[in-house]
Automatic annotation (TrEMBL), chains A, B:
This is Citramalate synthase. SUPFAM superfamilies: 2-isopropylmalate synthase LeuA, allosteric (dimerisation) domain, Aldolase. GO terms for molecular function: (R)-citramalate synthase activity; 2-isopropylmalate synthase activity. Its EC number is 2.3.3.21. Keywords: Amino-acid biosynthesis, Branched-chain amino acid biosynthesis, Isoleucine biosynthesis, Transferase. It comes from Pleomorphomonas diazotrophica.
Length: 534, 534
């Protein structure tokens, strides 16, 4: 352990990540995210800009993290004012933080056009700002904005900025690819040049994903000698996002060439919480998780091809570059039309359904699966419907209620005072224990009305579905045109337990398909509650 | 131009991309996507596996592309059978294609465990397969599966596989990072070793994104000498996806170090269609476009920070690594709607709508467009609805008919003899020239019934819509959950002329959204027929 070099993960989700269009953190959300980040084991957590807005002022009113180093971000001293008269620097130095991160110009063009000062004065602003932070007992960090573009335009000046920051006492000088247009080999070359002037264990990298290479650029910089890497959870950030720490972290911990050389401060146990943390963060920012995200995506370890699936069952290393368990994710062998028995067994195992491999009922299940998939069913994203289907063949699914009939209607007309009104209504008649129950409800669409009516009264089971909620509804038209078939996927949530499950329905009629998925959802919930049925 | 080396873009969206969970291309969709790809200027289009399933058989029943090279994919000859007795190879050689791409094992472990044959026999399978393709007049391509992992385990054998394919006459030997776990510097090192045995202008790279570095790995391989790069549109593919050609292409065309050395066959004019093509493809696979995608994402050139925005207005290069116009995207600044106006002008020009740039009605049109887009409308894939909206502001759209009311109903019940019956019915009441017309129709779903009833009788216009047909219907739920809004896209076809057009509707109620799109479709048809209206 002691012969490894320390590598510092610096999270800027709450600062640069907050530049993402559509993302606006509240103080409470910032506090929750900061705790997620420190629990994961990141080294630095940058919380925002003190003095810039009420949210950040409230967030920096207290020391928000204890396990990680807490950092505040702001600009270096402005040209033309003295340090003591710069309100931005004053707000930064007043924040109860461990580290102060100054963004500094390092591209001569920007010093001239945006900052409107001399190159020498900009160096002086950097020097004074760093010295002030150190004097105030803070760790000083300098983010050299546009460092790579600046280096390409004027290498001597970009290097002057980095060296000035380091010589003034900055703990870290961070090389930023602000526009995100740099290539990994350029990062390698430029970092190699900088390391000759500023030691690597005082250098950091801050990359953006505008050419889809923020991760590669960050790793190239580490290989060239930097010891701090900045990024965000799930790669959020302005334009195409910042370097994705959710992707970089597992590579650093799991891939030998990095794992043998560096200690990130994140343990293998902490790494196992990564998938859950990534999804929890998406919930906070109200974004659907990226199914295809490296390491943590729902599909990151999913295999559709039958030939791959049978090889994975023999030896996972054949088609997996790391173990899904290592990041808290799981293997998924998709039950698709290319699948065979091996996929089926793996899925049954994953769902904890006991069976014997010689059970003849498995043949019936497999053939029904294939027949249904040919009709348009897809169980890849409908675990609950898959489990019900399997149990109907292999075990026993109680018969909780019968739907005698239903009707749903949408009517649009002009009322007596000339306004157009739309009425959407559904009626459902169910039988539970010989008792006939009829319910009617309105909704904002035919399926919503049907959902409301169906869940209004199922007799003795009603209390058990009180906390059930339809949280996502997806429609896909297969084939297209007049011969089209509609596939509906429904995600349900039990508000009482937080448990989620997905069901599927297929029909030429969207209402029928939806009703099938709704019924599967309710049946699944009642089954999981351990009911014996009517 | 002539001093540049030719670099070949090989698209596998329709083959490896079809391994994506949740994606199932129909034959019609494959045909549409193949045309998009050849229009973009890609060199090779791989369409699927002939002989593997009915969809691919139908797709390979004809030569589907003429501007690009058309490729079919399959396995090398199986061990233990003679070439003439291998149905997979026979199906490949029978396909009307330019190129046959064989996937071959190149990791000794897989030859042993998955293929269950000797290392020498695997080389023989490669040799015989390539020779058969060449003899059949096809270009032979060999995808060396697991090449990088194989090279790490047994470099001599991996190299043997590549050399055998090349010496047997393969036009291309493609090095595949099948599990997606390789790092760019490993790709650089290994490609450098292979280039010593197989010339770079016969080598390709096929990368996967499991560490978020498929783009970087592809570019590293090109820098190390390969001349073919495989990938998919929008990076679709199994697990975390394939190398994203939508990201790689602009880097190759726009970044000097690649642009000065290589000719991709894609012109700067074709590159300007990339953003539109990327979004059209997402519509086809019914997936919400990634707002943060490099180059083509809605936010790829969006700036939130005020300081950045004002700098961009002074000089876009300060915060943009390439021009958004170069990929057909646009800059988004919160401070200005300049981008909106220029985009609107471009759209009006494209549709051949005449206008004056000083016409004040353009302001009203732009603000209605923005307001509708905020509500969920999307005109990128609904030209006909866009044209109607524009003409309602700038010109004149006749009022052909009024819908007085409509009603649609789905009823499911058990009939007198105990069978479950579903009845779906709609009634529409329209007014044409003071005449009230009422129609009723059944359908296989509420929207289909409504469509049938609406088109049953619109009086004097009826003959003109006789050949109109609804050929595609797509539904997307925006937001999700209870606050969801439904967007419906309808594609219509006039069987008499072959002309197709697309319309959009948005509402909390799927029936209302569909009805809006249906009405736009009929109105558009009547307008294009030159009717003056009621």
């Amino acid at each position: 352990m002691t012969d490894k070099a320390r590598l510092y993960l610096y999270d800027t989700t709450l600062r640069d990540g907050a530049q993402t269009s559509g993302i606006d953190f509240s103080v409470e959300e910032k506090i929750i995210v900061a705790h997620l980040l420190e629990d994961l084991g990141f080294s630095y957590i940058e919380g925002g800009y003190p003095g810039a807005n009420p949210t950040d002022d409230a967030f920096f009113s207290e020391r928000r993290v204890t396990k990680a180093r807490f950092a505040a971000f702001g600009m270096t001293k402005r040209p033309g004012v003295s340090l003591s008269n710069d309100p931005g620097v004053a707000a930064l130095l007043a924040a109860p933080v461990d580290a102060v991160t100054f963004v500094a110009k390092s591209w001569d063009y920007h010093v001239d056009v945006a900052l409107k000062t001399t190159l020498e004065d900009n160096l002086d602003c950097i020097r004074q700002s760093v010295e002030a932070a150190v004097k105030a007992g803070r760790e000083a960090i300098v983010d050299c904005e546009h460092f790579f573009d600046g280096y390409k335009a004027n290498p001597a000046y970009a290097l002057d900025c980095a060296r000035t920051a380091f010589e003034a006492g900055a703990r870290w000088v961070v090389l930023c690819d602000t526009n995100g247009g740099s290539m990994p080999h350029e990062v390698t070359d430029i970092v190699t040049a900088v390391v000759k002037l500023v030691p690597g264990d005082h250098l950091g990298i801050h990359a953006h994903d505008d050419t889809g290479q923020a991760v590669a650029n960050s790793l190239a910089a580490i290989r060239a000698g930097v010891r701090q890497v900045q990024g965000t959870l799930n790669g959020i950030g302005e334009r195409c996002g910042n370097a994705n720490l959710t992707t970089i972290l597992p590579t650093l911990v799991l891939k030998d060439e990095f794992a043998q050389r560096y200690d990130t401060g994140v343990t293998v146990e902490q790494l196992k919480t990564l998938t859950q943390l990534s999804r929890a963060f998406d919930e906070i920012i109200n974004r659907a998780p990226n199914r295809h995200a490296p390491y943590v995506g729902l599909s990151a370890f999913a295999t559709k091809a039958g030939i791959h699936a049978s090889a994975i069952l023999k030896d996972p290393r054949t088609y997996e570059h790391v173990s899904p368990d290592s990041v808290g994710n799981r293997r998924r062998l998709l039950v698709s039309d290319q699948a065979g028995r091996s996929n089926l067994f793996a899925e049954l195992d994953r769902l904890g359904i006991t069976y014997s491999k010689t059970d003849r009922r498995l043949t019936g299940l497999l053939s029904e699966l294939k027949e249904r998939e040919a009709r348009g069913y897809s169980y890849e994203a409908a675990d609950a419907s898959f489990e019900l289907l399997a149990l109907r063949h292999l075990g026993d699914v109680p018969h909780f209620y019968d739907v005698i009939s239903y009707r749903t209607m949408v009517e649009s007309r002009v009322n007596a005072i000339g306004d157009r009104v739309v009425v959407t209504e559904a009626v459902v008649k169910v039988k539970v224990d010989q008792e006939i129950l009829m319910s009617v409800a309105e909704g904002n669409g035919p399926v919503n009305a049907l959902d409301q009516a169906l869940r209004k009264d199922i007799g003795k089971y009603q209390a058990e579905i009180a906390a059930l909620e339809l949280v996502d509804y997806k429609v896909r038209i297969l084939n297209g045109g007049t011969g089209a078939v509609t596939r509906v996927l429904i995600e349900s949530l039990d508000r009482a337990t937080g448990r989620r499950w997905s069901t599927v329905g297929v029909s030429a009629n969207i209402v029928e398909a939806s009703f099938e998925a709704l019924n599967d959802s309710i049946t699944y919930k009642l089954l999981k509650n351990g009911n014996a049925g009517a």
